[in-house]
Amino acid sequence: MSEAFAYDLTVPVAEIRKTYRYDITCQGTVPSAIGCALEARSFEEAVRLAVSLGGDADTQAAIAGSIAEARFGLPRAIVRRTLGYFDDDLRAVVARFCRRYVKKGLARLFGV
Fold first, then answer.
1. Please, how many CA atoms are within 13 Å of residue 29, restricted to the half-sphere of its CB?
2. Whole-number average pLDDT of the chain
3. CA distance to 27, 59, 66, 89, 104, per residue, from 94 (Å)
4. What pLDDT, on the 0 to 100 scale, is given for residue 109?
């Protein structure tokens, strides 16, 4: 990533936070989101770091969370709480998706 796109992924999130401003471009959002995911020690920390930057926080959190899920997995407590907000129809959609596309270990996390 550093070579292909000239992203400096060595800058700590605390330094990014000092100068970060709302920026909807990939050049302004993706490097900071990757930095959050790489600096974090857990899925939740990656998402929190991304949100803490402000700006396009939902996009940054989505990117950082996706990378962090690959690194750390999804915490069971977060999955359960999230599924608790869904109605029965939406939970059924998630279950069908998991049965079809998700590895068995992760599908069990979603209760399917």
1. 17
2. 87
3. 32, 22, 17, 9, 14
4. 64
